[in-house]
Queue: 2 jobs
Job 1
Amino acid sequence: MSEETSTQKEWAAPEGSWASSPGNRRSMLGNRNRDTKPELLLRRLVHASGLRYRVAAKPLADMRRTADLVFRPTRVAVFVDGCFWHGCPEHFVPPKTNPGYWREKIGRNVQRDRDTDARLAEEGWLVLRFWEHQEPAECAEEVRSAVSARKRKLLGL
Ligand SMILES: [Zn+2]
């Protein structure tokens, strides 16, 4: 069995601690293995729960911003925010070179995120944002329950 296959198996049914897993340790070390990306893990888990969604789609046609998972009928937009690029309060550390530039740049990203949230909310969307450091199984459960609740509401149940 290749290492990749065993990693996928491991993540198909996550057990134990996410942080202590070899896959995550590898991605923390900077090896960008697609299969261990938190966003991909979340997508797999949500897909396995039977929900269907669009990937990297624009929730609003006239807004040039994409969400990671888009549930159009129930109007749920899910974002998995990278700890660096979106300024995670726990993990963002500006690079030693040009820290001012980076703080400003990341600050603009955060503002843009809040603006995206506000515009989506105005159009009746539910925005779910997760940090890439969050446990994918917990995020998937939150997505699942939010989408089901909105579905029930749409059906008038
Ligand atoms: Zn973080």
Job 2
Amino acid sequence: MLPTLDKFIADNLNSRFPHTSYVREPGFRSLYVRLWSRVLNNQKHDNVLDIANIQATKPGKGKFTELIKRLHPQLTIYVECVQNPRLEALLIRMGFKKNDGGVANDTIIGFPSYYLLKEKTETCGQCFEFVFKRAKQWLNAGNVESSRFVGVHATVHNPWSNKAFEHAWVEVDELVYDWQTIELKNYSPISKAEFYAKWKPTNIRRYTPEQVLAIAVKYGHYGPWT
Ligand SMILES: CC(C)(COP(=O)(O)OP(=O)(O)OC[C@H]1O[C@@H](n2cnc3c(N)ncnc32)[C@H](O)[C@@H]1OP(=O)(O)O)[C@@H](O)C(=O)NCCC(=O)NCCS
């Protein structure tokens, strides 16, 4: 009989050798996993759980999302050879990164793989620069009502992993313009209520567009400035 996923992990965690198996997990018809070390983003990571041949018993019921939420605090997750564009979109939404190289590069067989690092601090990419650019655009556009524009720097919490990271975004009236959604994913701005409920910001610093430019010049970088 196949082991359960939890038993497989418990038996093979911190092992020096790779272990692979089909496993049993409620909500999944098929799940093949490998627990080992991988080089990702030029660094060796132990306890990486590769996921392959995954099939939910009833797709679209949240089982995959639940599974990642449960596993990610303990493990780095690597989803191998993603052939389903909807799964790819879901992974990107959850914060997974595309594996673009390294020792075990699955992309050579034509399908991308995605990983979610178990890491202490996450970064938001170009969010601070985005706030700076938008502040500059706002002022250059001759907006007299500069109080409508708020550049926000804060600590936010990843809704899937609950990891804290420094983030920055722009608020205009009741809408949030966030680099990750606006530029990276080409989505529309979202409401402040929705954004705050999802990312639970703390240590919030608010800046006028003039302050964003002046403080960036003072420190010589886009932020954070604390
Ligand atoms: C891909 C899969 C494992 C995701 O598991 P899941 O439990 O359905 O995922 P969740 O319910 O947590 O999340 C739903 C999201 O999964 C993605 N998804 C991918 N394939 C899907 C499918 N066939 N049906 C529904 N959702 C799917 C979508 O992004 C969906 O979100 P959306 O409705 O907003 O687009 C599952 O949908 C599945 O078994 N699909 C068929 C087999 C498959 O494509 N396997 C992957 C091969 S690379």
